[in-house]
Amino acid sequence: MKRYRQTTLNLLFSIALLVALVSCQSSTDRQGGKAATSKAQEIVDASIEAHGGKLFDKMAAGFDFRDRHYTILRENGAYVYTREFTDSLGQVRDVLSNDGFYREVNGLKVELTEEREKAYANSVNSVIYFALLPYGLNNTAVNKKYLGETSIKGKPYHKIKVTFDQEGGGSDHEDEYIYWIHPDNYTVDYLAYSFNVNEGGLRFREAHNVRNIRGILFADYINYEPVSDTIALEKLDVAFENEGLEKLSDVNLRNITVKTEIL
């Protein structure tokens, strides 16, 4: 009987110890996760401020990108983005706003399939998203995690990973991003992302020709892709340093105009 009681006590003690260890580890994990999220948030806030801050909230802007003209109108959460170009059908104007998307051809609205409407809306939103970076990284569907410090071309950087919730994250919510933000001036000098459309892939972008236009920073990018399909998103900075990427294209914004006081 004594041996039975002793065995039972030992078993209960072992279970209690295991529960305590798991609880401690779980608490540590939660604290570590919160700390990584908090630090990432801090850095993103500073980066948005460095790139234009509150000027993003109330602005009108325009630019040319790959033979198409884009306009941005933002006012405290309300937005209207447009894209205009000429093709075989005539003058095309795409409009994306809080109310949804529509296309005009020669001044008249045209009917679109759900698939085409979604594709056109995503295309417009994607160009504007990159043009206004890092604005948008504080949207409610955005999740940020601090990955630590690293260096590229001998300069130090904060490394931050961004993912998206399914709800509110758009049709590309499964895409993931990495941002390299300078610790002193808080500029986004490099970024990388994974995408799933058109068979998917990885991209790495190097910012250059950064200019301040009426208080807002705009950058052009050199767009790279990995030479091997075994490189992970988080390792693209290492691949960049070790010639594991090849240039794919230039992402240049032309004829940028900005108004930050909207009547």
Spatial strand order of the main sheet: 6-5-4-3-2-1-14
Strand content: 35-45%
Count the beta strands. 14
Percentage of residues assigned to helices: 25-40%
Order of helices and strands: HEEEEEEHEEEEEEHEE
> CATH class, please?
Mainly Beta
Overall geometric form? globular
Number of helices: 3
CATH topology: outer membrane lipoprotein receptor (LolB), chain A
User: For the report, how would you describe the main beta sheet?
Assistant: 7 strands, antiparallel
**Low-confidence parts:** 1-32
**Tally of distinct domains:** 1
**What distance separates the N and C termini?**
88 Å
- In the CATH hierarchy, the architecture is Clam
Question: What is the radius of gyration?
Answer: 24 Å
Find the structural class using helix and strand composition: alpha+beta
Question: Average pLDDT across residues?
Answer: 87
